[in-house]
Amino acid sequence: MKKILIPVCMLLVIVSISKAQTKDIAYYINHAPFKMDPIKVPAFSDKTFSIVTYGAVNDGKTLCTEAFAKAIHACSIAGGGKVIVPAGIWLTGPIELESNVNLYTMKGALVQFTKDHTQYPLIKQPGSKTYTVKSPIYGANLENIAITGEGVFDGAGESWRPVKKSKVTPALWNNFTETGVITTDGKIWWPSVDAMNGEAYLNDLKSKPEATAEDYAKTRDFQRPYMFFLYHCKNILIDSIGLKNSPKFVFYPNRCNDLTISNIIVYNEDWAQNGDGIDISACKNVIIYNSMVNAGDDGICMKSSGGKDSLQSELENVIIAKCNVLRAHGGFVIGSNTDGGMHNIYVTDCVFNGSDIGLRIKSNIGRGGNVHDIYIDNIKMDNIVNEAILFSTSYDDKAVGKTSTENPITKADKVPHYHDFHISNIVCSKAATAMSIAGLPEQATHHLYFEKIQITAAKGFIGIDASDIDMKDVVLNVPAPIFTLTRCKNILLDTHPIE
Known about the structure:
CATH architecture of the largest domain: 3 Solenoid
Radius of gyration: 23 Å
């Protein structure tokens, strides 16, 4: 199968952006519209540990899993330092991080994760009652960790992901179907029979609460891992590396604090199923700075689940600055799971070019929650396939929860509640729809503030169950009707009510 490469154009763009910086991370923290203390950045001793010393061979054929593990552990027990990955191709199974370790990939280093799925153990991740596949890069309950340098990590995603025929060219489809299996309707290619039948295997295990890792073996191909998964870690730096070709989400930090992501490239093909770029889940004190994403699903996404106290937000204090998103389902995304609540998010000085949706706020009854105090400023968009700005409370995710609004809403229903969004200085030169804002009859989307917005689109403003929307200096270059409103109230354009 043809090797997936990060396009040279993406490398050139991010290099030029780095050279042209005028606003650093400290600037954005100091100018955030909410109080945010400086993010704690990890510090390391000057000790170095090369993976070559521990037996790694850079021929792209010799499995280096044990060498990575030995080097990382030696570094950690010595009090920390830098684990060096020299230039070359390093084939490996999962890499498990340890506290006080900076995994440093030198220029010209390619860490190639193996396509042999038996090398990925089935583990019980924290908080899980069932077995899941260990991620290619994994860390749990760690502190003071980093992955830095100029190397690239390849997750061998093509050996894991299903492919929809409708998403790829005929030539690429023929390339895939030389191996693997195809569903009876001819619409989806799977890498293996176990992958195609994995959901049925999992359903069978629901009646076996004492099932072992061995029982879950046939689900391994179906349970695609996140490429880079961190759980309950703190003081984290991810800088200047490339992450590409993931089995599922590329980078998924969950319940982490003090996380800095800077100068990285995240690349999945646009047909990569569930191939989200960066998904920040229930984390606090995060900055994503000067980075570029091309994804098969959402580009840069905020998620939040599992809150025990409805008055507290599981995700808060996040800044996304000077980032570029190319192909993706959404440039900046919130949801779909927002039931843990989120607030204090600042998105600024970003470019979205070619994404399906520019600003994508999505959830549904069953996984919705309180989302507020969101600030989005100085965004340039072009070639947006659908909506430039979307608020949706009926995201089509039937496997997760209810999407019907017919039943009375209770606290347990986890209802999407979007309010107090401040969106300004947005320019979109091309979109199918300028704005689509939908709440629920029982819970309107409300108190949205738009200022200095210019959008050229085929359709205008569509509002359903929305209220208290204030628009100042908003120009929608669209054909009539500019506004289509259903069960909306207090919609103002330059202080004039829109009926």
